[in-house]
Specification:
The protein is mainly α. Strands 2-3-4-1-5 form a 5-stranded parallel beta sheet, sandwiched between helices. α5 links the parallel β2 and β3. α5 packs parallel to α6. The longest helix has 17 residues. The radius of gyration is 30 Å and the shape is extended.
């Protein structure tokens, strides 16, 4: 079976890699590795389709060092054992191109680490996930981390022009069509090449026009929930735009999340955000967001987009307060740092007959008092006068605090 075009066009030298000039310029780590024929373990980190595995393979070719490809997600540990056996017999070093390294489980790590430590094997690992969050520190500390940046439309266009000139295609494809492909695949070089591969197989001996391209590419390629860090970056930008009361930015990032199709993740982000950043400034909106998310799940795609748009704009226009969020964060910090003080005796459980013998008396039941309020000590004595809740300056919290202050004065 004929190889996919992406495999045919894969570079065999780092000189042919598309983009990533910050990693490949003269004087860079990779350039010096090739020049001095030195070998180090590396982690290539970045979005899908931008050349992580291609750089790893090209570097291995340039170094003229034997290598094997191992995918941490699908390959069995027996295959890793066999690779290490090959490495033991190599006099020039051995490279494991370790794809999806963030999914390497403990059994496989235990097999790999001793040989990585001894320099019997070196890894060129690839991941779409932030290595500082997802990769075992034992592996991470033995590797240099190199972050690949998203390819621009121009990177892809020029790269396609250069690489396609090395193969004979059955189709006629002009610069305008290449530009359109580069634009619509949103920085995913592999997706661009795959589109050309499809066109080459389905429209042999035909000139490719906009209508044909439209038939093949029904919509822009967008990041999905499996697309690693950039997807999380979009969610982060969405949350921060909501918090910053910018409806235009929030709607833009919402559109990118909606096209990705992850309704459940979007709902979780909206619910978490409204309690974190709206909170006491507009408690009713918290319930409205939950209702909107439930309604969106009920109607599904594509109708849910109107529901999400309306609630997104409402969140942006709402007054904001993080007082509840800050209160729980500060109190959690106190508890985590050992401030686990004794509960006042009058607040301890008194539901059994002998409670009074342990001094568990004196609790004042608020409903026995005017306006259901009575002054008594609730915090442990070591924390008396501690203020976890600090009022934010918004109309509703001001009103609620004025009411509480009035109760205290009346008592």
């Amino acid at each position: 079976m004929k190889l996919p075009l992406a495999a045919v066009l894969r570079p065999t030298s780092i000189k042919d890699v598309i983009g990533q000039s910050h990693l490949l310029n003269e004087g860079s780590l990779l350039h010096r590795m090739v020049k001095t024929k030195s070998l180090f373990s590396l982690i290539f980190y970045g979005p899908p389709g931008i050349g992580k595995t291609s750089i790893a393979l090209a570097l291995a070719h340039d170094l003229s060092i034997p290598y094997a490809i191992y995918n941490a997600t699908i390959d069995k540990k027996e295959q890793l054992v066999n690779i290490i056996d090959l490495a033991k017999r190599s006099d020039s070093g051995y490279i494991v191109i370790l794809e999806e390294v963030h999914r390497l489980n403990r059994d496989k790590q235990d097999i790999l680490l001793p040989y990585l430590e001894k320099g019997i094997v070196y890894v060129f690992a690839t991941t779409t996930e932030n290595p500082y969050f997802t990769i075992n520190p034992s592996i991470r500390s033995r590797c240099q981390i190199l972050e690949l940046t998203p390819l621009t439309q121009n990177d892809i266009y020029l790269g396609l022009k250069k690489r396609l000139a090395t193969v004979e295609l059955k189709i006629k494809i002009d610069d305008e069509i290449l530009q359109m492909i580069a634009k619509q695949t949103n920085g995913d070089l592999r997706a661009s090449i795959n589109i050309i591969d499809i066109l080459n197989k389905l429209y042999a001996n035909e000139p490719i026009n906009k209508n044909i391209l439209k038939d093949v590419m029904q919509q822009s390629y967008t990041l999905s929930a499996d697309y690693g860090d950039e997807y999380y970056d979009i969610k982060s930008a969405f949350h921060k735009s909501l918090r910053g009361s910018d409806p235009d930015a929030a709607i833009y990032y919402l559109a990118r999340l909606l096209i990705a199709g992850d309704l459940e993740s979007l709902s979780r982000r909206l619910i978490a955000m409204v309690y974190e950043d709206i909170g006491l400034a507009n408690p009713q909106l918290c319930s409205r967001v939950i209702g909107a998310c439930n309604a969106a799940k009920e109607v599904g795609f594509p109708e849910c987009k109107q529901i999400f748009a309306a609630i997104t704009i409402e969140i942006c226009l709402s007054p904001k307060s993080n007082s509840a969020c800050m209160a729980i964060m500060e109190s959690l910090q106190d508890v985590k740092t050992g401030k686990n003080y004794s509960i006042p005796l009058h607040l301890k459980d008194q539901s059994y007959k002998s409670a009074s013998k342990l001094g568990r008396t004196g609790y004042k039941y608020p409903h026995d008092y005017k306006n259901a309020y009575v002054k008594q000590q609730y915090l442990p004595k070591e924390l008396v006068n501690t203020n976890y809740y600090k009022m934010n300056n918004n109309p509703l919290e001001l009103k609620m605090n004025e009411y509480l202050d009035r109760l205290k004065k009346e008592f």
